[in-house]
Amino acid sequence: xxxxxxxxxxxxxxxxxxxxxxxGKKLFIEAIQxxxxxxxxxxxxxxxxxxxxxxxxxxxxxxxxxxxxxDPGRKWKGPWRWYDESxxxxxxxxxxxxxxxISFGNAVHWARRAGAEVEAFQTSQTxxxxxxxxxxxxxxxxxxxxxxxxxxxxxxxxxxxxxSPIGGYHAGSDMVLILDVARxxxxxxWVPLTLLWEAMDTVNKTxxxxxxxxxxxxxxxxxxxxxxxxxxxxxxxxxxxxxxxDVPHLLKSKDVKDIDGILSILLASPPSGFGKFIQSVAEVKxxxxxxxxxxxxxxxxxxxxxxxFLPSTSCCSRVPVFGGCENLDEIxxxxxxxxxxxxxxxxxxxxxxxxxxxxxxxxxxPPETWCGIKDEILREEVQSLVSMDSLPAMLQRELYDLKxxxxxxxxxxxxxxxxxxxxx
Length: 424
Known about the structure:
Elements: E1 17-18, H1 22-34, H2 40-45, H3 56-67, H4 91-100, H5 104-113, E2 117-122, H6 128-138, E3 144-151, E4 161-170, E5 175-178, E6 189-192, H7 193-200, E7 203-204, E8 209-210, E9 212-217, H8 225-232, H9 236-253, H10 259-268, H11 274-283, H12 287-299, H13 302-309, H14 328-333, H15 355-364, H16 376-385, H17 393-423
Antiparallel strand pairs: 1-6, 2-9, 3-4, 3-9, 4-5, 5-6, 7-8
Helix pairs in contact: 3-5, 8-17, 13-15
GO molecular function: glutathione gamma-glutamylcysteinyltransferase activity; metal ion binding
Pfam families: Phytochelatin, Phytochelatin_C
InterPro entries: Papain-like_cys_pep_sf, PCS-like, PCS_N, PCS_N_sf, Phytochelatin_synthase_C
């Protein structure tokens, strides 16, 4: 039997005050005059309706990311780079979110992965006074936005867990403006801050964790190309494992005598997902930065050093498949071209342009990687070559961002493991 469907819900008022009502307008004007609506204008410019009933978290994030003018670094549709809910996960992840929704912890993860600076607080970590101070601080700025995770029942609304950005604060009445991304259900509305806190101070039955709020802002400077690619590409996880775990182990287990031996080890055990990671370089339309970065890699001198030690017949040497590419030159051809295309009929004249990629990977390895090299002279030579102190400033910045990201990732994993161990 067909159902008639639903056309919106009546906003429970009180406790809420309709944004478009006379009282709601009055609160809005007074809050503007008090300077606690600074982020409203940018946020309202990108106000959107969630495209799926369970996409409230993704809609809130894409709305905030666009308001902060954070470039996704990849295309949405046509030539346009733009944050949409579909840009915040792979098809498998989106399918799960569509069915189950998203937890507070996962929403924080997606915001950080998208390149935003995020301060996240579960209600168990703080109190209502801290929340009020955070609201006041955030809404006195135009480059910080607050996303709340709360249970609708606390506001006498129908439904369960929900996410929405907060659009402003009225100090006189101690009320916040909820820009509800479920616009098909409830219009934007003011609610008492203490009531919203109580709605946040509830437990997600799926995770067993309390809800909370996050303060989202744009990084102080744009992330570099390599950092952007690593953040957008899931295959980077496999590359990182390779750099941090596999290569150091291989170097300790083998007796290498020269750079050529080190390169053989690298090529014999390619990192998981490396091909997909490299392919993503070509998809990011930031050719000028890519050109500048790789130019500086070449200018370090280490680039030429690697080139000299790569086999002159590398275009014919078969190596394990990297995402459909069967040799270094084919991989490099999918990135930014630097020099002539490989000539399969003249191996000796082929310049191994893939070494620019290999160079970046070598430079990314942590310093302790080389401690396993038994030959002391070779070990010192390699360590001096990969010292960040001698690299151009731009490349130092790129590699520092990458390494910092992986350090933070390791810290978060360690914290999660400790928490699980404590629970067990």
